[in-house]
Amino acid sequence: MARAATTSDVFNAIAEPQRRDILALLRAGERPVTELAQELGMTQPGASKHLRVLREVGLVRDRKAGKQRLYGLDARGLRPVHAWAGGFERFWNDSFDRLDAYVQDLKQARREE
User: Where is the HTH arsR-type domain positioned along the sequence (predicted)?
Assistant: First the structure.
């Protein structure tokens, strides 16, 4: 299945590794684009482009502080991703339950040796 060319949804926006890097940096708090660009080894226009996409899908908010514009994480935008990933919770719980049963069987077998 061909991937959509749009970045208008959160899944496409976070598919780009540099955008995930930006989100990771913003977990620590608001930062200006110049700091983000410098830390990630990007040009400022490149970082601004990624921030615009993240802002458009609701993952980043910005505010003006003096002459700077500060960008911050808006984790509410991750709800669709969290809801989607949560659909796999039963799969992981079942896998962990089977693994736990296997480990308990191994422990029991060693005690009986």
Answer: 1-93
For the full predicted model, state whether its pTM sits above 0.85.
no
Residue pLDDT, tens place only, 17-37: 999 999 999 999 999 999 999
Give the closest residue to 57 by CA, choosing from 4, 1, 113: 4
Question: In the chain, how long is the greatest CA-to-CA distance?
Answer: 73
- The pLDDT tens digits of the residues spanning 52-82 come to 999 999 999 999 999 999 999 998 988 888 8
37 CB-contact burial (10 Å; exposed 0-12 / middle 13-18 / buried 19+): buried
8-state DSSP, 5: S
b/e 75-104 (16+ beta carbons within 10 angstroms → b): eebbeeeeeeeeeeeeeeeeeeeeeeeeee
- Phi and psi, residue 32, nearest 5°: -80, 160
